[in-house]
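Researcher: Please predict.
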Amino acid sequence: MKLLLAFALLATPVLALEGTDALKRDLPNFDRVSAAYYRGGQPTREGFKMLARLGVKTVIDFRDDPKEFEPGAVRAAGMVYVPLPMSTWVRPTDETIAAFLTLLEDPAASPLFVHCWRGSDRTGLMSAIRRMEKDSWKPRRAAKEMIAFRGASPPLIRFVFKYYKLRNPKYEMPDLEREFPDIYR
């Protein structure tokens, strides 16, 4: 029976972690977006070990004030550490977005885990860009998902729509203050 239980836990690693105190503590605001993409807040050292057990190959850190222990902890767990620092209040540079999109397309980098401090603002924006690029989501849906993960800063929500408009010039920008009154008050 123990062998069967152990196999079930190994076969479904995300399900084995969901809802546990360890997950909330070591991988805050964690979610599986796809088989190749996980997101969350700042992991602990143990959180990085958990990600490695899930099969994550690359950790992308969007923090502009990274934890000193992180690069070593990620490498010690057998993963690749990629810093793509950005602000919570200012849109990412075109170079940061291009580097992120390149990593999304690199099969050797997947599965990926992306994070910032809370797993909401910066992680939310880049996950919204991923949703629009890979899943063909419209910006409204991507922004709503962004907000669902503990909120998001108004400038980054606005950028979700601007990013989409850059690729779809005929898109009509909505009135974001009316669309998202809780964010823009």
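Model: The chain has one domain: 25-168.
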